[in-house]
Amino acid sequence: MENKVILTVATTGAWPTKKETPYVPLQPAEIADEIYACYKAGASIAHIHVRDDEDKASMSFEKFEQTVKLVREKCDIVINLTTSGGIGLTDEVRIKPFVELRPEMASYDCGSMNWQNSTVFENSPKFLEKLGLAMQECNVKPEIEVFDAGMVYNALYYYKKGILKGPLHFQFVLGAAGGMTATVDNLLYLKNLIPQDATWSAIGIGKGHLPILYATLALGGNVRVGMEDNILYSKGQLAKSNVEFVERTKRTVAEIGKEIATPAETRAILGLKNC
C-alpha cells in the first residue's frame, strides 16, 4: 500500500456557480454523473457538497439523500460528506446527513476562522465534541480539515480526550482567505505536526493547486482535486470537467512510479467501517 495514493475529488463545493463556470455540477443528478465519471477515471473518494434549488450552498438533507443514492447506484467510490455546507447552520442540520446516510467519511473542520475576509466560519468546541462523538457512534471516519496550524493542535486535543479516535486522517486546505497560504513551507510545517501513524492529504486552492499537489506527492501524501477548490485547469482556461483534474493527477502519480488507490484499497488504508 506504500505505493498507493488516495485521490479525492471534490466536484462541487459551496461557492462556484454556473456564472463562474458552466461546467460545475450543482444538482444531485449532475453531481452523481460527475462523480461516476471521476470514479471511472480513477478517483478514490468523492467529497460531496450539495446546493439548494437556487444553486446556493446548502446542507439540505433531501439533496444529500438524493445525491448519495444516485452515487451508490452507480459505483462503489468512497463517500465523504461535508458537515460545512453553509454558514450559521444548527448543529443538527450539519450532523444529520452523515447520521442518516452513513457514509464512510465526513468532514471535521477542526476550529473556527474568519472566512474569505467576510464572515465567521464557526466550529465551536461544543460542536466539535458533539460531532466527534456522533461520528464514532456512526462508524464514520472524520476527515480532519485543517486551514491553519491551530486546527492541528485542536485535533490532537480532541484525540487525547477521546473525542477523536486514531489513526487520524488530516486534510490540509491551503490558500483560503483567513487561513494559511498555499506554500510548500506551510505544507511541510503542517505535515510535521501530525502523529506518525496519521494519514494525510492536501489541496492548494486556486493558483496554489499544482505547487501543493506536486509537493504533497513528493512528501508521500494523498491529494484532493476538483472544482470545489479550483475551476481553472491552467491560467485563463476553465476545466470542462472534474475528470480533467483526476486524469492529470493520475498521470502525475504514474510519473513518480505510484498508483491511485482503488476504493477498496482506500478503505483498507484508512480503516473505513461503513463499507
Q: Can you count the beta strands?
A: 16
Largest sheet geometry: 8 strands, parallel, barrel
User: Over the alpha carbons, how many angstroms does the gyration radius reach?
Assistant: 17 Å
Count helical runs: 9
Structural class computed from helices and strand pairing: alpha/beta
Provide a brief overview of the structure.
The protein has about 280 residues and is of the alpha/beta class.
Structure description:
Strand 11 (169-174), helix 6 and strand 12 (199-204) form a beta-alpha-beta unit. Helix 1 (28-41) packs parallel to helix 2 and helix 1 (28-41) packs parallel to helix 8. An eight-stranded parallel beta barrel has the order 2-3-6-7-10-11-12-13, surrounded by seven helices. The longest helix is centred in the first third of the chain and has 14 residues, at 28-41. 39% of the residues lie in helices and 21% in strands. The chain is globular, with a radius of gyration of 17 Å. The chain has 275 residues and is of the alpha/beta class. The protein contains nine helices and 16 strands.
List keywords for this structure.
single chain, 275 residues, alpha/beta, 8-stranded parallel β-barrel, two-stranded parallel sheet, 9 helices, 39% helix, 21% strand, globular
Task: Reconstruct the topology from this structure.
Elements: E1 4-5, E2 7-9, H1 28-41, E3 45-48, E4 50-51, E5 57-58, H2 61-74, E6 78-81, H3 91-101, E7 105-109, E8 113-115, E9 119-121, H4 125-138, E10 141-146, H5 149-161, E11 169-174, H6 184-191, E12 199-204, H7 209-218, E13 222-225, E14 232-234, E15 237-238, H8 242-255, E16 259-260, H9 263-270
Parallel strand pairs: 1-16, 2-3, 2-13, 3-6, 6-7, 7-10, 10-11, 11-12, 12-13
Antiparallel strand pairs: 4-5, 8-9, 14-15
Helix pairs in contact: 1-2, 1-8, 2-3, 3-4
